[in-house]
Amino acid sequence: MPSLSLSPSQGSLSSSTSGSNYAPPSPESVNCASSSKLSLDQQDEENITITAKRIPQQKVTRQKSQEEDLRLLAISTHMTELSYMISDIQTRIFEIQELRHKSQSNGDAASTTSIIDQSLMSLDEKLESVSKGIKSINDSLDPYLQATPTIPHNGSEAEANETAAIIRKHNTLVSEWEAVQDESEVLREELKEDKWLTVFRTVTDQADGMMSSLEKGVNRCQEFIWQVHRRGIEDTMGHSQISLTRPEKTAPTLETFTALLDSFEAKKKHYMPATSKVLAIIDKGVRDRVTKNGETLRRHAESAQRWKNLRERIARTDADMDSTPESTLKARSQQVPVYQGTFGRSSARPSLPPSSFRDGSSSRAPSRSTSRAGASTPSGTSGLPTYEYVPGNNKDPLDVEVAFIVNSIAHGLLIERVDPPIKRVPGENEEVKAQYAFSNALSRKVVTCKLTTLTRSGKSGTMTTKKVMCRVGGGWQDLTHYILSRQAGM
After folding, report:
1. Number of independent structural domains in the chain
2. Is the pTM of this model over 0.90?
3. Residue 20 has what DSSP assignment?
């Protein structure tokens, strides 16, 4: 606080006195002298000088320096924390890479997908936090980064050294941040590649399954054609009975020819367009990929070559089936007797189970049944019996959609609902699940199905698409693809 000093000037009254004859002052003169002294005192009070004590400039400079040091210390501490967080992010990236390689070596990518997804979510949160911290540091150090370097004077040399150290630490932090961002981008690209490889394998397996089914049909037709050309009509009419020592295969009759032709045409109708579409998707995916994987290139080339050879075989088989004389087959069916021995095998073919294929030699029912699941109905010219599925509850959207899908595909599977029908109508966004059994002559598999509703907004309005997904292995597969895959393996 500034101090005030009061220095009044004292006036003195000097009066001349006589040494010998001194006369006392009169009352009037005393009053006059008192008033004169009072006037002088008032003038002295008005002339008081106020003096303020100033703070030394060195103390102000020292205070500013301390504040600057505290600010730089806070920035340095924040940068240290960010450096630790960047190190933690690098550790997370390494752990995710280890999970990738472990799943690839074990072949169990589905089980580790959820773990990797959770790790990626945590990694994104940490990256966002570090990004905000880096931005805050850049804003705080912007005056120092933009300042022009000057020659330090006296005590400012230490401050300049501290500022230079902070700037060097900031440059190191920025370099670490850019490096970890690059590592994160590389990891994301590799994970995208892994997911694409999984999709590629799934789609390629579907294409291979459909081509295998077509190859089976081609082999059956070619075997039948070979039997016709081997026997000939003269050789056929020369056999009056079937050898008792060596059972023969099904005779090449007109009924067998018709059944084979219908089955072959049905497979071509459904599998050839689907296979061409799947292979086109694979081809486009391989061409659009920036990175080339040896497995994808090899399998893509093998699938393309296999499909080319198969189409050539199908074309030759079509020509051979068209050139097969029907008169020969009619004569064979009229001349070959049916063996009725005592080997316990009836001449009439036993009835087939509901989920099996119907052979060409079996009789065909002319009428269509409208009963529940398991009613065998002919599927037009496909030659493959379709077991119509009737929903148990028309208010169950999942059951209705399953019936619509399975009844629109030519297949030989028997579909049954395992879970009981629902008792109430599900809500609009409520997930609907149920178990269904898919049976054929060899096996019966129970899978979980769920109804998925996709809503898309476009220029023409909102479009809603319903799909039924099946739980297969560790993931979900479209019901149509699942039925085609099961059909291809029959």
Report:
1. 3
2. no
3. S
